[in-house]
Fold each of these.
Amino acid sequence: MIKTKKDKIKIIKLSQIRSIHHQEENKKIKSDGIDMDKWFMNPYSYIKFKYFIETSALIVFFAQFTKISPNNITGIYIILGFLSGLFLASNNDTLIFLSLIFLFTKSSFDAADGLLARIKKKTSNLGDLLDNWGALVGSYSYLCGFGVYLYNKENNFLFIILALLIILMKAVDLKDYSYHLAMYKLFKTNKKSEIINKINMKNNNMFKKNNPHYLTKIKNFIQNFIDERSRTIDIIILLIFIDNYYFNITLLNYIYFYIFFKTLLIFIGGIYITCYKNYLFKK
């Protein structure tokens, strides 16, 4: 089949993709006060950032020669997130090793789908939705897999119970559900713009006014300490690797207990501010 100039696909060099990707991601990170060009300030983050940039750029470079769409790459990201938890719970050394690789690498696919969409000019609301849903699938799978891994290691059924409770509390969180319900009702109304403008005017600084500074600090500490961001997950990956192949790491048990109590506090806090502080209804 002879392709005309009109049909010819524009091929972007790997160096160009890497440069575009690096600039975009570095700009995002700099907005948080982090400069990835200064490796001595953030050595671990610098190495992970470079790995993340290089691998996702390679994925996009080869994908441009195929019919693979950005949403197809998002699908791979979702599958890797699901399998990472499933394999972690398998009690099989080979599958656990694959799980750790998936957990460490899936962020490359998470970045590649958006980059490919921008290069191919195929960004979409569906793509953004699937990307966020994939993060949720990966989170639930990881938390379940981590709990079952500890059950297999310790032969203690408590970790199965904790895993189920963590997922249950996340799934039925009242604050999250109230926002989902409010958004659904907002979509059904014909006065969306008017309502949104009123919300913005009335509640721009509401949280800051109603919450003492020390409470905000405590809340931020609880949410950010041992969270599900890349740095924390990578530390846990390393600990699981050492625990599974070399010697016992009891710290993993305490990390999971902390995740449970953190989830419990957030769950109770969601009920408190929704039922007793009328946070959503004031908005």
Note: The mean pLDDT is 83.
Amino acid sequence: MVHRRVNGEGTIYRRKDGRYEAAIYVRTTSGIRKRIRFCARTWEEAHDKLTETKAKAQTGTAVPDKQVRLIHYLDDWLEHVVRPNKRPTTYAQCEMIVRLYLKPGLGSQLITRLTVRDVQGFLNQKIHDGHSVPKAQVIRKVLSSALTCAMRDELVSRNVARLVELPKHETAEVYPWSADETKHFLDAASTNSFYPAFLLLGLLGMRRGEVLGLRWQDVDFAQNLLHVRQQLQRGEDGLELGPLKTKASKRDLPLLGIVRHALLAQQARRVSTGNQSLVFTAEGGRPLEASTLVRSFRRICGDNNIRLIRVHDMRHSLATLLKDMQIPVRDAQLILGHARVSTTQEIYEHGNVKAQREALGKIEKLFMRPVGHAPVRSRQFSRQYWFRADLFSTINSGAGEGTLTPGLILGKWSSIDVKDRVTEVKLAANVAVRLWLVGVVAVSTASRFRQVHLGRIALVPLVESGNMLPAARRA
């Protein structure tokens, strides 16, 4: 009996050019039911494509009604997804990555046929050509974001960029300023026109864009508060005020006395153009370029022999100083405007040798005993074993108070005087002598047993050749 195809099963037939073509009616991404065709070199390949398409249709996944190349999809993604939903700086970075790297390298690929091997080979070649690992990571991140959007559009079933592996990159260690270095810099910058900006960076931990985007209406001299509400960033039309980095970046900071005095002096020098005017401006009231502030920062460091760091590292300096002053990490997080406490602890707070020395010094004091201190003690010998750093400090050594010398004692952890020390040493010596005697006896016994045992073994070959074998074995 000839099998009759049912509606929706699809069909496979051979074309005039010798290839096979599969066709099936499915729901497409455009929202209509349409007949989709697939060409293949063999019947089996066409059947596999038809089966895969039917499986997607049965699970409710829409099938693309046309083949889209990556170069066209990236343009659509930038225009309709990134531009209206992301910050201008984010759009500018994504557009640059797409234009310089993704389009020339992978743009001709069909988005449905893009494989992990294609992306892996593309990124490996970029690293081989001299691009850094962080650059390759940024390229993968942008491509992954675009393919995630393609998954939502039901154009692809998986994000191949997420499956790509790249070499690990160790970020450069940040060595922020100490409190003395920060004070030295602020003293040297006190005559600079950007001195109030440097105070906001060093004492309040504000970001560079937040400082340059500060308006006079955000400075509340009556309540001694500083309202951080926007930042200055570069957009398509130049410098413009934009939203803050995260929701947690919107914060109110206390206006310290030294900062208040500097801002009042700044207000007196500048001719205000209204309540919306910026605190720090260039000539003519125009927004100030970040590069201008950075050049002044580097010039001050060079002229005063101050260790050069990044302007952003002043936030690291403040975070580390708050940690060293034992300020709760939650308060440090709110001051710096971080969305998560882990960012403050793992990235911005750094350790220093002085703080580590003080911490270990507290541990050291637990194992030190001032000479002459004799609290309540017990003469009864204890079986607890402790390492005593001051055991073999001789009685008349003349060592200063708190001197540590290596030693080991069997006894209780308690401060003792000279008589108790002698008693414990005698008890420990008696225990050691007894253990030594037991060891001597054990070794001697084992040696004798070994000699007797070897003697018996030596007799066996001699008697096995004679008639006395049973008697010898009994012996």
Note: The beta strands are 11-14, 20-27, 33-40, 219-220, 225-228, 231-235, 238-242, 251-254, 385-386, 409-410.
Amino acid sequence: MSPAPPLSFTVNLPSFGPFFPKGELHRVVDLARMAEASGIDSVNLPDHVVMGPNTHSYRWGSFPFPEPGVPWLEPLTVIAAMSAVTSRLRFLTWILIVPLRTPAVLAKTVATLDVLSRGRLDLGVGIGWQREEFDAAAVPFEGRGKRMEEILAACRELWTREPADFRSDTVSFERIDCSPKPVQPGGVPIWFSGTLTERTLDRIVRLGDGWIPIMGESAPGIADGVARLRERFKAAGRDPARLRVAGPADPVRGADGKPSLAKSLERIPSLREAGVDLVHLSLLAFCRSPEEAPAFFQDLGRRLEEYR
């Protein structure tokens, strides 16, 4: 059995919303430079193609930006720009809405990014939650979970076989070549997000490399999920030690009432004990403006040394 993955850290970057002044969203690339300079392992970026007015269907609390007109940069494009100005930093989509993409185009785009970044890409994936977004993309909202599974299975074939053949209810092709292949052996790692239902368990075991628990999941809840996943990995003939698991260092307020980075990081030992190897933090929880970002990254990089 392989050794367990080492502990690493990822920061969610605001490639969306009003964090940057109007007309300055391009400055998000500077945050990647700061993250790499501080020693952070990876950054992650969210995804929405378009946004409808009915944000009340967001099931994980209040949607942070319900007002219309809030910008959302396309994450794969942003990662391409960031990879061009960094050399070590890894990139993770958090979360790419896979059913909105077509399989061959997604496979090609992701493989291209992996080649250009020299193997520094991970895909965090999900099915999406807003019907209006699917309507605007002319993609059926119903059946999106099955569509995601089949798209990713098709991507796996296109990344690893030459030529590739694939047949399912929604995706089919024969003797198709998609080159270049990703640099990473077996293709780009895929992390499935969500509650660990039987369907999610099956997706991770068949097609995935990692699990991103739902927001607010407790350390005991994560530990239970990790135990179930490792058992299923072993039963499927996969090495349980290769399972990747993310967990949040949720913001904790200090004596001054503001989010305290030091107190937030105190959750790391319990997350590690639960089986987490990728600790997630949100830049927006600690920075209210771009001017605060350099100090945040310097402080974070210094503090993380004691947890590695």
Note: The chain has a mean pLDDT of 94.
